[in-house]
């Protein structure tokens, strides 16, 4: 499975200083996107529309809740758009046995990729044996049938925890590490408001620096524009979670990005807009 056309090589990790220009094409950008259909209020009609949009733009995957896999199969089965199912989503609190069962069931139903949330409480407790064993067992459950992306939920973590998770995921041999669920809101102690950053440039650099060459990076949360997508690509990201898929790819067309590769400038800015969540 890892040999599919849209798994990009990371054997030569980018330097921590992003280039000023990068080469892109419309198909390359589309195959960076996991179109997210994960909001808890989404109706069957809205999910169906999102799956058809994923098909229209030929993205990498449609990222869905497990119960939507049969519907996704009915729409995407004869296309190159894969099905990505979330496990232990969004808080990672399920038991390891539950996550393994959910993963196995999702693959049997037709999922090609699994996005699994770590047990954040165990990470913050420093129970690394538990955390590594869980990731290992879920990765074994996908072996040969799908690939695993491990969601850290960086808004809850410090640099030490992020680095440690990168080291564990490298040791276990997962396909991707992923910044966020899109729903990891943190309560501000002064205002009482819930805020959210998602994929930030410092965290993406940290993850790329501490993951092995074969582990790819998925940015989720905050990638809402074409410029956001180009910026994170320049940092070594090979996949993003996005709800703004149509807007991103239509903007690419407006800028003259088509099937042929072209060089584009990297606009200044940051992927820390936050507060909206639900990538």
Explain this structure to me?
The chain is α/β, with parallel strands linked by helices. It is built from ten helices and twelve strands. The chain has helices at residues 26-30, 44-57, 69-76, 96-109, 120-125, 128-142, 159-172, 201-210, 226-234, 245-254, and strands spanning 21-24, 33-37, 61-64, 82-87, 113-117, 147-151, 176-178, 186-187, 194-195, 216-220, 239-242, 262-265. The strands form three sheets. It has an eight-stranded parallel barrel, surrounded by six helices. A two-stranded antiparallel ribbon has the order 1-12. Helix 4 (96-109) links the parallel strand 4 (82-87) and strand 5. Helix 4 runs parallel beside helix 6. The two termini are 25 Å apart. The relative contact order is 0.17. The model is unreliable at 1-16 and 272-279 (pLDDT under 50).
Properties at a glance:
globular; two-stranded antiparallel sheet; disordered N terminus; 12 strands; 8-stranded parallel beta barrel; 279 residues; 10 helices; alpha/beta; disordered C terminus
Number of helices: 10
* Helical content (DSSP H or I, runs of 4+): 25-40%
- Low-pLDDT runs: 1-16, 272-279
Molecular shape: globular
Specify Rg, calculated over alpha carbons.
17 Å
| Total E-strand runs | 12
The class by helix and strand makeup works out as alpha/beta
Q: What's the story with the biggest beta sheet?
A: 8 strands, parallel, barrel
Largest sheet, spatial ordering of strands: 2-3-4-5-6-7-10-11
Report how far the terminal alpha carbons are from each other: 25 Å
**DSSP strand (E) fraction?**
15-25%
Mean pLDDT: 90
Order of helices and strands: EHEHEHEHEHHEHEEEHEHEHE
